[in-house]
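so my prof wants the structure for this chain in the tokens format not the other one, which i didnt know existed until like an hour ago. anyway here's the sequence
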Amino acid sequence: MVEKGNITNCFFHADLDAFFAAVEQHDNPALKGKPVIVGGLPGERRTVVSTASYEARKFGVHSAMPIVEAYRRCPQGVYLHGRHQRYAEVSHQIMTIFHDFSPEVQQMSIDEAFLDMTRTRHLFGEPPQLAALIKDKVREVTGLTLSIGVASNKYLAKIASGMQKPDGLFIIPPGGEADFMGTLPVEKIWGAGSKTQELFRQHSLKTGADIRNLDMDFLERIFGKALSAFLYKAVRGEAAEDFDRDPKSHSISAERTFEYDLYDPLIIEAEIRNMSETLMWRLFEGNVRGRMIFLKIRYGDFSTESIQTSLDIPVQSSKEISETALALFNKKYRHGQGIRLLGVGIGTIEDADKPHQGELFLSPEQEKLRKLEKTVFNINKRFPGAVHRQTEA
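here's what i got, hopefully its the right format
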């Protein structure tokens, strides 16, 4: 691990297992053991899989897959609309637990976070015992399982958390970073998308060590500068990505790395709409609002772009978030390139009860949408899952 004086860096990456589907199975025990697919109902044209339970994954169903294709593969599945307010509620419970173990928690999305245990792990024991404590507490409070990866940097911890899913724990030992990456199959190199995997196959690169044996000039000829710089650090066990975001004061965000690079405009649009709805629920949950919307795009070659815009008045609905984010996407997207990661966020956060002069000039549609979504939120707060927004056909 990386030494700073006599301090050794220790990062946990905690990743909820099939989070949305797991919440549905917990809240409705009749669904346990069944292939649960969250995202939409068969026959709904513009819906994609948000999360598939492990039972559904056996049929080849995965996130970002059109529901129509998921149904073709798994007609016996249980198909559900997402309950984003409920997921945000459970996520908040889990993040609160994480903060009991470390003051430095970096929430990456609704179902994953990094915990910097460098300065607090001595209070709870060594990583195996500490990880067990966290997993047990999450299971006790929410009934859910999570997988934890432990390493000296966030990038390796992210990979480690996926090594033994579900309900897994994988620790990369101090000093073993390079050895771990050297034996790692290239399919498990986080951030290397489908086009990159094809290049690996074309050049008979099977493990991290195979890539490590190539010099930088050769790497750049194959992968280009951005991706080759990333791979050079990754296969040596270094912090190929630190996951630190651009500082946006008091912001919340949701982002997703996809199993397969996205090209289909309808799938991309559906993912942005799903993240926008999650963000709106989190605004309601925290009783806050924001006036800046930002978008992050990472392509298959690992190049990354971001764009943001400020609004005259705070956002009023998930529709407003998604339409603004989609406009930013259409302005920034390099057409024809596969997308590896998408992120949507809201900045300039403030207390929702604080008076804002601009709200005196809300349009009738804005006022109607705000009241509708707040009503749905309040109903679902009392009766989880009682109401969902109708998906557009």
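also thought this was worth mentioning. The domain at 19-84 is CATH 3.40.1170.60 (MutS, DNA mismatch repair protein, domain I).
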